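Lab notebook, design round three. We kept the backbone fixed and only want residue identities now. Task for the bench partner: fill in a sequence for the structure below.
Input structure tokens:
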């Protein structure tokens, strides 16, 4: 067992936390934005002050040791062989997705994505003046990626240059099966669509599931895909700003880099340090985290399914619960739950009206408190 006690409640108020300061001075438990309320792993906590002892904090290149850690980790965890020259370090996945659209999508071109989806996927094409094509998914078929609809879209809309793929899926917690990924690769290869595969949640698969990187499926997949990864979600490092884009097709990677000229900042020095420590020294902490999150997931499912008017499907990955609140027939779901003392993310933000997203990456006592408040509010209607 790691030294971390995930039951420990950490007071994050007055720390400039976007999650907690949103409801500053209010009795509302924040369970919205996707960061966890756990202490980081001890090796990360030790690595940061070691770097701080050096007085220099000028612009920093990616350390060779970190680049090698990334290569070694992907090979060990996924059997995926990437090279150091395939890596581009960036300060975050979201700005990198915007950069990718700027660099890869022609003026007047299109971007496709399956919905509901992490809301920056919906915003990035508009930010860059590109057209977004939505591929609706539904709960009835388990949030399966709509392969047939995507193939039809690709045939009918040759201006589509990029597929933004959320793998595993946020907010619905779905893991995309390798056979479905293979179909996505086939369609994108046939229609020359670049796959931007956001795999930031790939180390948060529950119940022993195994992640398959899209680009690992073979030469065609590697040639057609840019992969976006970071330790920020799985090791709770979002505030330190470090991510990696993997492009095994040099031409694609060059176009991605060109899209960031003049707008993309360097990575924070401490982001490099924390990421290297996370991906080289913290596997035991991470295994314990997954066990704890699975326990939280089980509690969440049990409690929500026992509340009249609410329902939930399985959660295969992430620490995010996607709750169906349609039967409550609420005029303003966000306000209803805030009035109950729980701050959730509204489903409409992800193009999933009638749902709410709940972050269960917190001590179990906090989760239980939030669920108690939700249950009381629903019972009082």
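Proposed sequence:
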């Amino acid at each position: 067992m790691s030294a971390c006690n995930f039951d420990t409640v950490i007071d994050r108020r007055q720390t400039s936390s976007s999650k907690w300061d949103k409801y500053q001075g209010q009795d509302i438990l924040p369970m919205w934005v996707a960061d966890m309320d756990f202490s980081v792993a001890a090796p990360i906590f030790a690595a940061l002050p070691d770097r701080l002892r050096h007085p220099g904090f000028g612009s920093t290149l990616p350390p060779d040791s970190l680049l090698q850690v990334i290569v070694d980790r992907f090979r060990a965890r996924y059997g995926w062989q990437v090279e150091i020259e395939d890596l581009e370090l960036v300060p975050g996945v979201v700005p990198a997705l915007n950069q990718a659209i700027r660099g890869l999508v022609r003026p007047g071109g299109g971007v496709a994505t399956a919905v509901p989806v992490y809301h920056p996927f919906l915003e990035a094409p508009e930010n860059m003046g590109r057209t977004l094509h939505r591929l609706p998914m539904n709960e009835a078929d388990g949030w399966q990626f709509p392969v047939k609809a995507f193939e039809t879209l690709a045939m009918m809309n040759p201006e589509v240059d990029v597929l933004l793929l959320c793998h595993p899926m946020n907010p619905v917690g779905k893991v995309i099966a390798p056979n479905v990924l293979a179909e996505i690769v086939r369609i994108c290869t046939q229609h020359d669509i670049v796959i931007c595969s956001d795999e930031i949640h790939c180390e948060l698969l529950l119940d022993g599931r195994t992640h398959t990187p899209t680009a690992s499926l073979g030469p065609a997949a590697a040639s057609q895909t840019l992969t976006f990864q970071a330790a920020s979600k799985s090791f709770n490092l979002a505030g330190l700003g470090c991510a990696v884009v993997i492009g095994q097709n040099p031409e694609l990677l060059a176009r991605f880099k060109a899209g960031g000229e003049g707008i993309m900042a360097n990575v924070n020095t401490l982001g490099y340090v924390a990421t290297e420590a996370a991906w080289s020294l913290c596997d035991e902490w991470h295994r314990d985290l997954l066990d704890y999150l699975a326990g939280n997931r089980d509690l969440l499912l049990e409690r929500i399914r026992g509340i009249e008017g609410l329902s939930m499907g399985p959660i295969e990955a992430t620490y995010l619960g996607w709750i169906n609140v349609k039967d409550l027939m609420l005029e303003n779901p966000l306000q209803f739950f805030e009035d109950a003392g729980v701050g959730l993310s509204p489903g409409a933000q992800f193009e999933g009206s009638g749902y709410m997203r709940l972050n269960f990456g917190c001590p179990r006592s906090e989760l239980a408190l939030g669920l108690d408040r939700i249950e009381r509010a629903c019972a009082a209607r």
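Keep this in mind before ordering anything: The two ends are 44 Å apart (CA to CA).
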